[in-house]
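Folding Query — how this chain folds
Tokens — whole-number codes for backbone shape
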Amino acid sequence: MQARAIVARAFGCSLAAGLIGLTLGACGAAARGSAGTSSSLAATASRPPSTVAAQAPAEAPCAAGAPAAVAQAAGLVAMHIYELELASPEVRADQRQVEAYGPLLSALAAGDRAAVSEAVTSLVYSHTHVVRLRVTRGATVLADVGGPFILAPVGGPLRAGGRTVGRYLLSVQDDSGFVKLEQRYVGDALLMRIGSRVLPVEGALGPAAGALPERGPASYHGAGYEIYTLDTVAFPSGTLKISLLVPQPGASTAGCRALAVSELDRVGERIWRRFALVSAPPSAFVHSVSSLTGALAYVRSGARQIAGSTQPGPPRLPVSGNVRYHGLTYDVCSFAASTPSGPVRVYQLLGP
């Protein structure tokens, strides 16, 4: 499912962005700090009140629903990270490589189990992104190579000479890799559970967090959180529950939609900063932010568009408020930033 559709159904809105060391513009992405990661729970124990563009449509205060609104927005981005491990162009390229790998197909056709194992090992350790690969024939596992804690398996048939000679299951991401991505782009502490067992994954919370609920408010180490849990798939099967500990927002009169927008804005800021650290072009940021949040994003220097989700983008964009574009009304959020070529303003269009 496309990221834009998922976010739109939940909130009718999407993303935002920011840049390290710069003050935020009109949208107020400071629902919580973005400098650190979730390794320090105390540093992210609460969110200050969200600020919302003055021109935003009036909305009733979110009140008691605020923690859930913020947690769901963070959780949706985390789910999009997971979905990209299932269906990105890179994943499909790895699948094609496995499906066309001559030594593996020949070994399966010949019934040579040792050769199957050798071919699978070669695929996992040479020129692929695959972190685990399992090949089966019927109910028999012929080879299974890779790490112990893996998620997001994808698979299909293996064919040789016009007939199916086996099946494969692969993954391009392990649990610790997902944790690193979530903490890079979302920044919340998390734990991973299969049933009641907390997995010992690097960067995730340990067994002491196992008593936390899957959803709702909770206290951990003296701080208040809203727990949001994703149901994902472990390798080779079964439900892997990934629970985010989202710091509860501070007191605010903002509506639930506005709080969700502000949370996605904060996530966008982290994404921009990561790209800025490696001097990635603005176009790369725009592509990634759209994949993770579904936003229409634009980077402009004055009236000149440097990068954007559409070419050309809207002829004019306000610093904040609303804009009508291609028959739809979007909330606009923006902030000032800088690039090696000079100052820019980054806009996000949060739409239906």
Q: What stands out?
A: The first helix runs from residue 3 to 11. Residues 1-62+252-352 form one domain. Confidence is low (pLDDT under 50) at residues 1-40, 42-56. The chain has eight helices and 17 strands.
